[in-house]
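Complex 515.
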Amino acid sequence: PVLVVDFGAQYAQLIARRVREANVYSEVVPHTTSIDEIAAEEPLAVILSGGPSSVYEDGAPKLDPKLFDLDIPVFGICYGFQAMANALGGTVAHTGAREYGRTDLSVSGGVLHDGLPATQPVWMSHGDGVTVAPEGFEVTATSAGAPVAAFENRARRLAGVQYHPEVLHSPHGQQVLSRFLHEIAGIPGEWTAANIADALIEQVREQVGDGRAICGLSGGVDSAVAAALVQRAIGDRLTCVFVDHGLMREGERQQVERDFVAATGARLVTVDASETFLSELSGVTDPEAKRKIIGREFIRSFEGAVSEVLGEGASKGEKVEFLVQGTLYPDVVESGGGSGTANIKSHHNVGGLPEDLQFDLVEPLRLLFKDEVRAVGRQLGLPEEIVGRQPFPGPGLGIRIIGEVTRERLEILRHADSIAREELTSAGLDGQIWQCPVVLLADVRSVGVQGDGRTYGHPIVLRPVSSEDAMTADWTRLPYETLERISTRITNEVADVNRVVLDVTSKPPGTIEWE
Ligand code: XMP
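Predicted structure with xanthosine-5'-monophosphate bound:
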């Protein structure tokens, strides 16, 4: 792989994504990874990310100069660029000229920016700067606040930039990253959906051997693609299990039973566990507690389904050893699974797993981003109704009722959600939004007036977001007419709701789901 060394950047995941967009496989590792560990991965290249520190600060993450003895191509970005300059004998100083945001870059030569405009906008965010490039390096760009804004040493396959090529505000950034990977590091772009699918199928075969597996289907893209991959690998030793936890949206169960089976012909067992889930959730209001209960009950339901999966004729020693999950890279990172990252929330299938899990996990998508999963799904021939579906979290409406989850509240939310979805679809907006959680503030009431009478009802929150991979998101600017229709219909048609509000928070600082 290409390793992205994370120096505490907000952008390390994004860099990994961009590298993959250049058809090169990439993973993020924390800056505490030792040189020996890095060398053991035999990386095709190393990218040093940005970070909040100054290289001269006490406690600033250190870059081990031995990295440069490994004869591996290295690309430094922002802090990584400065750390690289510092380690190779260049000079980093407070230039006094801070640059934050859009800046003009003047290109004077080199391979990195070859064929790109001589003056181009880039996104900068730095206080310190490189003032003298290390010996043997050509300075190939400057900006008003950065006398050395890019350098390269082609013979040693080393290069770096002060700006952030990974963000969309640097319009040529993707080309610059690609040029580093392909031209300077000499890595061919071979990471494509077809190759990924083949490699993953092979991996699953190796892991499962001649064992049996069940796959938890949730109705979402991820579990559907994971199931299709595993089915390719082990055929009918896979059984899919759909757990109806009672926290589904309207029509969802029928949709899974119909679409997925039609597309794959896989064996599907449905478990109705709504009674259990709701009684376990009764009285619980804390989001993490809810997530852990839901994660645990999923597993208990899978365990309960094993005898049905094996069938009546099963002999005593027969077992299902493996559980397939559609866990994605962002789920792992946000559950604190990427080392050095905080636990933001326990995704039900990662941080929410019980400790006494009796299955070995098969998670073929664990290192992929959503768009890559979609590409693999298409490669496997899954239809657009499944592959193009908007994300929906495994814990379902359970984490969209703020407060205790009850049957009554689920009815209210399900109704409001179906109205919002119907209107977004009929306005043709599905392609513009990543997803639109509809949230019930069950413990909040406000005063309203309807039909000459006073009401004291709950607010519904609309949370439409646009995103590339759910790691960051912006609120979607929906047309007022659509918002108006949704609001009017919900307040008219849904009992106990007398107010509809719009969430206009990006991520960060908000997460996409409210819990
Ligand atoms: P957040 O709320 O963390 O959500 O910004 C990021 C994306 O992940 C989805 N999500 C989940 N998906 N199990 C899932 O399968 C979970 O526990 C879970 N929590 C959040 C969320 O809908 C969004 O797409």
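DSSP finds 14 helices and 21 strands in the chain.
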